[in-house]
């Protein structure tokens, strides 16, 4: 029996552990059924077109009639055209003498138609939303809008990627509908086109190049359904998507819904526990346990793709999604697969293997095999007749400008024009490519043009920046999405018809604009900034293969093993990989580098087939030990793809994350003696006093060779400059624009950044920000321990040019003033409030988006001890005092305000605490020489155009192993001293243990991943970082170990229940005795081999719930 047959009986599951907030929901089962009632399985009627009437004149008016959407079709505006008759072949030849559209002239009467987790948990906790999670399959984006609407890849169409997508979609119809498939394929095409819809899918195949694992079968999963309608594009909710897919028997993804604070926090805790070793089996099992509702997909990831899971996608959806989902699942049960036992014809791999001459041959074979009911014509791939060459495919570039100059004839066109204008005005990295629409070849004429527009976004940050612009606009804008395709029809009508159309379209546009813009939130009641909350959570087992092995091939073969090691260590650092995994991966990757370079020499392994070598290597490595098996995740059962791999001309990579093969090259790069540059470079410092910028600039200037660049370099110290510093920088750049300038002055706000941006445009120079590397807080890019280090450094100064040193009256206040200039620019949280005073923006991302690069200066050691309570307390006290002072007096000097005495006391206390903790503060800092070396290497790469900004979203501790209550060691030592005074046996046991010196850390383990499972550990996420009351009831000790028996209390009225049979805190073990041996103490007591001293009354203490 085929394996998919059994999947039809998989049922969705709902948990009843915690009630979701009671909400009213606008969609019932009947209403959703009504919403989908237009999904008829018979041919849908065509909407009648109402033509405009009038008298023809010599002078024409141009009308753009769009088929707008994210690859959608079917115009809603129809007008009588000057040239109703279709173009004959001789006139088509005349039309195509030059690029299509070159001879079209627009005039005044022309028209056109055309780190988030916190916010997510907060919204779910308040009953405002539901958290939805789905699997991220490892494949390529494929979009389909019907045969005439088009098949599209990420940024292209008419190539092998889209041909493979059409074939796989057609084959899935055959499997689902059996003998009825041809009829259903034709009806599906017609339905999408007439309803202006597009479906987006993850296309997973073994023929389009390697990702994380070669799939066992070729398939696609529907991830989105879009409907243009007559106004704002509508993306189907997941319940609507599942209903749509089950109606048409299309494959759906596995989805989990989390509607309570407990389940939402447990989700992210589960991910943190599995992020470095999760596979499809362990991840799905954990999510099934923590989610409130689990809806299995129609295809099992393990069966069709394998165990290597790319990641999860978590997003915020409406609060009523859970209720809608239940209704839909009851109304639309999983459909049958009528063709599962029938002969489906040659598979994708068979067709590709049998046609190996070139890409065009493979495309034609795939489209022929899928049949004419799915693909009636092949014009998107091969053109039409004599007009099949590339010169007829491309449209004249001036068409875009003409499109922006014309009057919009409907709402969708107006919004598309606004989108394009905004992208061009802001100079976002995006291209607008226009191609002939060969489906309309019979309707083409000189004054009646049809073409497809592709909006190709070159950089991911464009999407974020565009969303920010959307929030600032006073009117609604179309969303900018990946895979944006538009069908456009440009034609002319006579003057009278145009005037009539102007009046009617103006009325229509005004009414639609008001209606749309008055709707500030979607149907689920979510504001736009919240509706867009989404995070991708990827797994290390996938990243090992793609980022570390595949993407590192070019570096390994070109620059050698040393450069490759630098590459993979930097990647792991950016991801926040745990130290243990770094060591294990370093050993494995070094072995891989030696193995593959010995086998291939200087001939680089192809990235599209890298798994041919990597998978057997990983399988052999995994078999050596259980630890290696966990590291690799899963390996073996390699699918051989060499004989059926799709032929891709020009070494294209449609997915974008596969690096191009550059061929063989020397093992070490040839670096020229000097790098000639015509442009200047400005290095500036968005920091605060004490960040070591002046010392860094001095070291750079004193280093022989500087940045290995032949341009002149100079440094300007802000404390020595009188007048406006940045104006002076501007004047010097004007005189010598090809200079490297070290702007030794803090650049703490957007006003300064805008000045620097202006210099880059006026003088054609590059600017690079150098920022202290800090984890930051929820509201500030600099953490408290970073601020403490900077204050300490300032207090060690003497004779500072800017008079900010130990002799200053109020250095602490000055540092706090600079610190608060960065308020609202967090590193930890990335979310926005368009209707509130605060707008939190990611500090690193904003700098990178503005200047294209970012250099980070190391400050603190990653494995440092926590900030001492005294230092933390004085920092928090100063911040509170500063805010009180600022709210009352603004920028008034602290010695002149209401809080003058408090400031004096605080400054005095600050100096003393910094002196008392000097040893700690010095110990946690990265050595200055190492920081300088790191910055120098990054700046050298910037100067050569090679630097890539590190990932700004990283976790500090990496993989979660267990949940525990962290206890204050000092209070435990005090308890032990009291017990020793009260009991001779305790005194005798403790007298030589030196607990005051040796007991530095203590905790009570609540649950361990290996013993209790991921879900058990994750369940404590709801209380993460909360204070937990603990009572110690007894001291147990033996010759080898000692522990305090514990009773854990409640948090916010909810009992914290340890999963350990005997909750305890281990306080001592003999040499070479592991702490887990303390678990045996109760048994040893019963056997008379250990002692138990009752603590009466119990000793009460508070701890903090943490993940380790």
Automatic annotation (TrEMBL):
Coiled coil: none
Key words of the record: Membrane, Transmembrane, Transmembrane helix
Residues in tRNA ligase phosphodiesterase domain copies: 948-1087
Record GO biological process: tRNA splicing, via endonucleolytic cleavage and ligation
Record region (Disordered): 1-29, 655-675
GO terms assigned for molecular function: ATP binding; RNA ligase (ATP) activity
Membrane-spanning parts: 472-491
InterPro entries: tRNA_lig_PDEase, tRNA_ligase_1
Pfam family, one: tRNA_lig_CPD
Record flagged with keyword Transmembrane: yes
Basic residues bias: start-end ranges: 1-13
Name of the protein this chain belongs to: tRNA ligase phosphodiesterase domain-containing protein
Organism per entry: Carex littledalei
